[in-house]
Amino acid sequence: MNRTNKLIGLFAVLALLLNSFPAEAKFARVGALSLAEEEEFPRGFVIDEVHGFMYFAAGTPESGSKIIKISLPDFKRVDEIRLPPNLYRPLCAIIDSAREYAYFGVGFNSTVIKLRLSDFTIVGDLPIGVPVDMALLDDVHGYAYFVHSASTFFDFPSISKVRLSDFTLEKKVIFPLNANVKFFESATIDPKNGYAYIGTLGISRILKIRLSDLELEDQIIFDKPGDDRLQTLSAAIIDAKREFVYFGAYGGSVVKVRLSDFSRVADIPVAYSIGGGALLDPVGNFAYFVDYAPSTEFTTPFVARVSLESFKVTEKIFFPIGEGFVKEGAIDISKGIAYFGTHGLNNNTITGTKIVKVDVSRPYFRRGDLDGDGRLTIVDPIRILQYAFQGGEAPACLDVADVNADRKVDLTDAVHLLTYLFAGGKPVSDKILNCISKGEGGGGGGDIVTDKTVTREQMNALRALPGGNNLAQMIPDPAGDIPADVDGGQVKLVNNVLNSKDSSEVSIYLNPISSGRVILKLFTLNGDFVKTIWDQDQPAGPSNVTWKGDNEQNEKVASGIYLLYAEGPGFKTKKKIAVVR
User: Fold this and answer.
1) Boundaries of domain holding 462
2) What is the pTM of this model?
């Protein structure tokens, strides 16, 4: 083994002994945009990720309300629409990016506003008869649902179903207050499976509502001892891919509910009082819950980051005095940036309104980058081997270990990566992966399977690489596998670059130290068998075998790098052959 191979092999061994941790996901305040004095209580945040804009509403009873347009790349306001006095205070919004419309629900006027995004123009308003507190989008079937929470015992909660194709109220269902229904406080939607989930006031319930007829199908009641921190479910998000819904409560805890059997899984304390909404980042696998209490010497509002894998609070960002009372926000999932509307309160007086920008970016999921450090190094194939063959920890995103994108994690993935790193092999795709679906072992990856089968050819391909013999020790030997290189004898290639233009051939010079069987086999860098060039007994001493660039079927092989495995009395080695067509 030459000096380079020894160094790489040593590094491989050292890497096995080190604990390498993924790059930490960022979570930091990176900017703030101050609003005018008359632009209080920003609500109804929606983001158009395709074109890079954010829209929200703000205003006061005296000056009326506006819809404000923010350019996200430079974080500047670029336009606004002042609403007429009868459309004061939109409280919620949804965005239908595919059709390029946004819809704002007005709290005081019982109206839904339709905003065309292409020219930032209001193109319609639809009276629905009740104030609008929450909005849900079913972009699968082309409907929007506007939820009225009810504010007094003389009022009743309701859901209005609006057909988006012609902006028409199709159905409205009023829910009388009784033992099964209380005031609606939060809502989220699962369009694919046809349900909405509503969180209620007081002794909390999660209501499962069928979208087809807007009827109550089932409910979970939180009336057990210790459920006081789950009273009044004020924030909701749904992770439909993983089939869970999460509700945050004014009592300060978050509850996790499995959708498949609509059952309570767990709850954790998160904040003093969750009342400022919740955001989901399905790519980074985090949720964000807002404690919106006004800033005082005793309470400071913050955003809590919850890992959906561990279901634990990992970090918090506190808002300084003067930026208290955070109510809601939006997240640009593609960029890893969240935006929160804040308004400071001092003796019930607004002291300033801002849009705060928070970096919530997560480690990139890239094929081959098992340790999440943004680079491809020897540590990464080691991680693949540890996971596949030594019971190591599954990657957060199983696609990362599927280096050759064949929907399997096996030895060929590690060989592919090593070949790229140290033998000039095919580059690994640098496309950022969106790992949402579950894979075996807990990571994303959907239908990816782990294949622990090891063939002799795969092991040969691994050992042919720099440091491969060290890494091969991590893998159970397949039946009849070949041990490490042994000294003695000689194998030499004369003209190891086969060029079809000059009709060249590769000459393989052999010098076994004694008589016996000599085997010459050719493989691709991925370990695929190409041809048996020689397999027979021969006497000791020099001999010569040629290869003309064909496979087992006598067909010309493609351009690329191939591995020659040579075994005979006194030698066991690998050589590289280049083919140029």
Assistant:
1) 3-21+368-472
2) 0.63
